[in-house]
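[job 0412] stage=fold_complex status=start
inputs:
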Amino acid sequence: MKPKTETELAEMVAGLSHPVRIAGGGTRGIGGPDATIHTAGLSGITLYEPGALTLVAQAGTPLAEIEAALEAEGQQLPFEPMDHRGLLGTGGEPTIGGVVAANISGPRRIQAGACRDFLLGVRYVDGKGQMIKNGGRVMKNVTGYDLVKLMAGSWGTLGILTEVSLKVLPKPESTATLAVQVADAEDAVQAMSAALKSPFEVNGAAYDPQDGRTYLRIEGFSDSVSYRLGQLRSVLTGFGEVKEIPDPADLWQDLRDVKPFQSLDGDVWRISVKPSDAPDVSMHLAADQLLFDWGGGLIWARVSQGTDLRARLGALDGHATLVRAGADTIEILGQFQPELAEVKALTRGLRQRFDPRGLFNPGLMG
Amino acid sequence: MDMPTPNPDILRRRDAVLQQLLEVLPQDAVIHDAAETLAYECDALTAYKCPPMLAVLPATTQQVSDVLRICHAEGVPVVPRGSGTSLAGGALPTADCVILGIARMNEVLETDYDNRYIRVQTGRTNLSVTGAVEEEDFFYAPDPSSQLACAIAGNVAMNSGGAHCLKYGVTTNNLLGVTMVLMDGSVVEIGGAHLDAGGLDLLGVVCGSEGQLGVVTEATLRILRKPEGARPVLIGFDDNEVAGHCVSDIIKSGILPVAIEFMDTLCIRACENFAKAGYPDCTALLIIEVEGSEAEIDYQLSKIVEIAKRHNPVEIRESQSPEESAKIWLGRKSAFGAMGQMNDYMCLDGTIPVSSLPEVLRRIGEMSQDYGLPVGNVFHAGDGNMHPLILFDANKPGDLEKCEAFGADILRLCVDVGGCLTGEHGVGVEKRDLMTHQYAPQDLEAQMAIKDVFDPKWLLNPAKVFPLDASASRRDVRLAAE
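[job 0412] stage=fold_complex status=done
writing structure:
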């Protein structure tokens, strides 16, 4: 099913008699029923005001189209959404609705904020086929409850997004990256912590144990970048050999998209923890391969197929999401971290209210 | 402004409720004397007053839980209160309610610089959160003008903003986790020191829910390293529209100042009288602040000045010292108080798309003429969050009503140009009845459904946010059940 307007979508949902999978470009690899509602027909940028740093687009708009429009005005989506296609081996064209529904954020999340932090407003169709709006297109808005944040990262389980408003930011004039050669995850997290605690506005902090390098990124006006880079070098003295990486754009895209795991077998997990917990947590994972982002706060782990990583972790201050695995493993373990009883009751209640017939992406998110 | 009629049955059971509360709280934490409950009759929206039936000041999450459990069982509405600085009547009591004040819970529980967060009890004031981390050169970013007095509990409830959120975001962007007590007394942990939700983003919907979903007793907040330095520049114009274009050009140029504040003549004069900050006397004044090292500040300010000069400013002046910068900000942050010295005022905080600024200012000027009430404008120009201050005389019969009608017209205008009713103060009771102008019935229904889940009996701060007739059936179910 591929509705062309929000009204058409609403009628379609009202008439549904069985659950559906909701797909933007279908690149994020969610399972679910074969019957699928595609949002690709709801496409196009509705409004873009560079002077107000705001962009409004229909949910099915290809991400590439949005990035091109922003690029033309020297602006960007600050949260640097990951492209899942390489890691998951999916095809298709990522849409802005998909990015928002999954709250996809990349390395810059550590400093700039997540996708949900840049989401100003949404329109969606709920499980009763009603067209709902929340938020708007202005940067400060506390009028009523913030369903905008709730819809971001709800993976379509509360409603089908039809339109999103985003805050955008100027694209930095210049980018620079330092690599620190470190011994282990402990040293890496300490180095990243020192950098993130400095006043030099580090907006990328990742560690690849394969090559033992901790990467730290600084962005802004050229003079400012070279000044802060120099200052950051002094902060990192004592953590290991420091080198500047020439032309680091590809490096950060590869880290964002977990390139080192691509084309390698095994299940892939994504674990969010307090950064200083990362070394210990990663030890317990006993993973075949690891990659750290967000100053250690985000751990990517590649493990053999069917591994119950949550069992290895035990009680976790954070959450572990199964990003890539066979359907049987997903069936057994679930993609999302099971919630504590009180939270689960709230989550269930919300899903029941937003989608009383259980139509949207059943089985996803517990 | 209407409030629901107090439930006589609850009033009749007042003493029984009081006895139960005294069983779980120390004597000095339960306020029942009519002379003392009067202290809780209003918040900073002083036009509306009503003493609560009782007030309690719990000191622990367990005590909060006990209080809520009792009130839940007794069907007594509870109005949570931080420091009572709400400009929207968020903490306005009803005569049959228990005020739950969080002020005694003001401890710092944990400070973690390596992971860049602080965990506090939410009765702690906004400014004292920064105070707790200042010695390590850290700060908590959201900075509402009331930051000296306002509590984190209220900041979370209202999703408070401030002057510097153009760069740092508002409360919701700086909140990592909460400990929250639901109306039935159960305690829920949401989020924590890690980033983002593992499931639905409940934290996102709790923040800004105006104390209607639960009582937040502890909060994990993101703290940031202070920039090396910061400096404001004052740019005066003889035309509002030109000042608006200047703001837009600065943003388009790729510079992201931490703050862009706008004041009109009436506010400039009031603030200058108050703070002696050396504001130029002009039609429109911009205070633009940038951050970084000295060289970075110089570079950004030179670009800003270059852009401003294209718009024929009447004056451009960079702050020459930290003392002068402090005075410039003192003037701005004292705007409400300074205007208050001139007369009673009503402060609005609708947000508009930045591009609509000239049109909205012109329309407000016209309405000011029509209503015969002066209005001063001071606002966060970078993000379009307006703060029209309507002056009126509370002792003059009819003036308050006229002022409210004028205010409602301004807010409707904000919505009509693509903005919203409130950017950072919250809906409370003040903008409750205008909600239908911004949201269709099904949009409000979707929001109320959230409260149904968190607080099925609609006992927490029930008469706020939603128009009374919209929430009536839900509140009536509660009454009928008793």
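[job 0412] summary: Residues 222-236 of chain A form the longest helix (15 residues).
[job 0412] exit 0
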